[in-house]
Each structure stands twice: as structure tokens, then as C-alpha cells.
Design goal:
Dna Ligase, domain 1; 6 strands; two-stranded antiparallel sheet; 319 residues; elongated; 11 helices; alpha+beta
Length: 319
Amino acid sequence: MNTSPSSLWFYSKGGTQEGPVSFSDLQQLLAEGLSPSTLVWTEGEANWVPASAIPDLIPQAISDPSNPYSAPATSVALEPTIAAPGLEEPPEPPIPLDIGFCLGQGWKHTFANFGTICLVGLIYLAISFGVGIVTTLIFGGQSDVQMNEHDLQTNSGSPLSLIGGLINQCVSIFLSLGTTHIGLRILRGEHPQVGEMFSQGNKFLNGALATLFFVIMFVLGLICFIIPGIFIALRFGFFMEAIVEKKLDAISALKYSYRLTRENTFSRLGLAIISILIVVAGFIALFVGLIIAIPVVWMTSLVAYRYLHAGTNGLKVLP
């Protein structure tokens, strides 16, 4: 890594790429208040990294001899840190998605937190199943029956049954927000409580609206010869993560996912195909394999979301 005073560096600010600036100028910017979690990049580097991960940058930047209140410089090397989850913006240029890394870390994080993930999954299924039974009994237990002298017709698409389906979908969105919150905390090396899957209610409206917009775009895309629908799923599919981690509204979350996945559409497609194959393999293994396959695929998707922010610095990397 070229850290000479005259080397040219870029940094991300407000979602846009700034620079180039010299290494010494970047130090000054950090000294004047630029966040140490700011993503930086210079020619020759594969990924954007937080400024705090560059020992020669931060110690000099936070020490100002003319300021008696500044922190003293240190020669102790700083260890790479996770890139300020929830604060950083999609990097410029985009980070190429490493499918192998995402699959590997998805597998490792799943087994390192298997108990928590399984318990969260069981609670998710139990609540979804329970609500489904209740809504069926209340709204869909008795179908509208129309009789005449020739036939008996059952109307399964009655308004009551539609209300039941809407309730089921709302419960699913609420639980998805909570499980996403837990998954992202796990990737940061934290230890979330299972009860946190009920902590994201304040984001429900944005989650519901974003889901509605996403489904409409996806269906319209499928109608338009399928391929546009696949493209929409790959580019806009991280809206739930953006709502949970970035606290964005529905439209902003969809736009954010589109920006984050730019130039990685085919990589996302490759990862999606492999994920489908993993689930199919779990299904073939007498259904038992799904207990492992589904959590691994879920965690792998979250790893991909974090990786696109800061590469290997976007999450706690397990050996």
C-alpha cells in the first residue's frame, strides 16, 4: 500500500466519491473531523477500506501538535475494524462480489451461531404457522358458497380470505425485519438476544411499502419476458437490509439496494443460482438438509450485503 505523502487517495463522503487527494491531505481531513470509518482507496488496492484500518493514516491524523487537546500519536498498528455498519455508503468504485468468500463466511457464521439461528427460525415458523391457522379459521375457514339447481361453486377468493392473506403477509414482513436485524448483528460479531426479532416494529410501515413496491416491480418484470423480473430481484433485493441497518424509507431503501449492487448483477445471479442448488440439495436429503441449507443461504445473502460495503472489512471474518 502506497502511503507516501504525495500518493493519491479517494474517499467516500455522503454516498459520493471524493478526490483524488494526497495522503497528507487525507490525514489533514481526518484531523479536521472526517470520520475514521470513512472508506478510502488508492490505486493498487482491491477493496475500499475504512481509514481506521490504515495505521500510517489515523495515528498521524488524530495527532495535531498545535492542538494541546488532540490525542497523541502512536506507533502501535491498528487492527482492521469492521467498517462502521449502518453509516458507510456504497463505495466508489463498486467492490466486486466474492462468491466464494460469501459462501464460506455464510457457512461459518451459521455454525458458529447455529443455536441462535435455529431458535429464531423455529419461532418465525411457529408464529407464521399459528397466525396462518387463526386467519384461516376466521377469514378462510368457511368459503363463500353459491348454489343453484345445477352446481355447487366455492369462492376461495372472497374478500375475507384476502384479508387473511394480508394479515399473514404483514406478520411475515414484521418477522423478516427482526430476523434481518439479528443476522446483521451476528455478522458484526455481536451476540443478539432472540427477543430482538420483535424490536423492529418502528420500521414496519417502510418494510411493508418497500415489499409492495418490490413485488409490483418484480411481477411486472416477469410479465415482460421474465429477464427484467430477475434483474429487479437481483438489484433491488437488499431493500429489507437497508431499512433495518440504514433506517431508510421504502423508496430510499430500494434505491440504495440498486446503487449497492451496481456492476455486480451477474455475481449476484451466480450466488443466487448456487443458493438455489444448496436448498435443492437440502430438500433431496430427506428434508433434514433444509435445517442447514436454509440458514446457510440466509446468512450468505447477509454476508453478500455487508461485503458490498467494505469487502472483508464489512463484517467479522471467521477463520
